[in-house]
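Meet today's protein:

…
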Amino acid sequence: MTDQITPELFQHLVQLGAMELKPDEAEYIRHQLNNQLKAINELAAIPLDDNTPPAAHGVPYTPEMRPALRQDEWRPEPDPQKILAQAPQIAENYIVVPEIPHTDL
């Protein structure tokens, strides 16, 4: 496998994501991501007929089998204060999220 996330690349990604990770957390996540890349590469190596559509799978899923789409309906939350009480910071009944510093790429 040639595609691996190096510690240097992972550190760059952590900085882009404005994350704070302990060294053991960072190594664990990097290892898990490399395992996922390995699985993706293994799947990509499976030979497929050129006529196989991208979403082909072994189970037919016809329109008759699909449930009907439901209408989108707005329903008010019965207890919005319960949700707001879980937020680390609120202002005027809005959840305050920290500003993420941006840099030009």
